[in-house]
What we know:
By secondary structure, this protein is of the alpha/beta class. Helix content is 47%, strand content 12%. Helix 1 runs parallel beside helix 2 (41-54), helix 1 packs across helix 8 (238-249) and helix 4 (105-133) runs parallel beside helix 5 (155-176). The two termini are 25 Å apart. The mean pLDDT is 93.
Amino acid sequence: xxxTIVITGAGSGFGALAARALAREGHTVYAAMRNTxxxxxxxxxxxxxxxxxxxxxxxxxxxxxxxxxxxDAAVATVLADAGQLDVIIHNAGHMxxxxxxxxxPEELAAVYDTNVLGTQRVNRAALPHLRAQEHxxxxxxxxxxxxGGTPPYxxxxxxxxSAMDAxxxxxxxxxxxxxxxxTIVVPGSFTSGTNHFVTGGHPSDLTVVPAYEERYxxxxxxxxQRLAALAPADADVSQVADAIVRVVxxxxxxxxxxxxxxxxxxxxxTVSAVADHIRSEFLTRIGLDDLLAPHAAR
Length: 298
């Protein structure tokens, strides 16, 4: 059954691939990105060309997760154009690299703003409509860094992704009685095929960096190279898009709570399995096991 889908951060990487893959499956997909008339105008044109070539319903829409006004306007446009909204995919994210001490508190807050508060802005705009129709799906694109191996020099990003994961877990229970389903898609470290590292930020306090460079010279390059060396030859970012397509296409109420796509196998899946089991067991112990799956009002 065709669904109307909004996916944030869909200008490149996981987002762009997932938007195209979902459109090929017959869904109406709004590939959300910011600066559609300026910096991302070429990506808008590419999406339009792809839609025309493949005869799919792939649309782009201006949406800046840092602005509630922008998010509200985007959701209103989707509802006016399509008349419905079935799936929200939280994909927008921003990575920074460097010694943690060299980032100012404001820089850490900025990473949190994109990766965590951005999802809250989208939810506040879209969830009233999903709740009113008592049906829907929220997909969160997380990271194995929340529970798996955590190499150095990525702490602000890891911390934000961990916060987003915690938010997703709580939302899952709070939305279940509105018959809204949650799936957390957990990609591992794909060192090519995305713009995470290319567009990533760096700390501004350059007075701190030299001390770390003396002891940790070339650390970020070492991390990237060693992660790439661990990945199997067939590791491809399209696997993340394929996983999202499978989740969306699964029958409502039967979707997995968490899906890992981790070519490096950094241990996150093992830890998450324990954490999610404990969550399920605890909610059952306190008599709230109905929150473990979406259902219509009783």
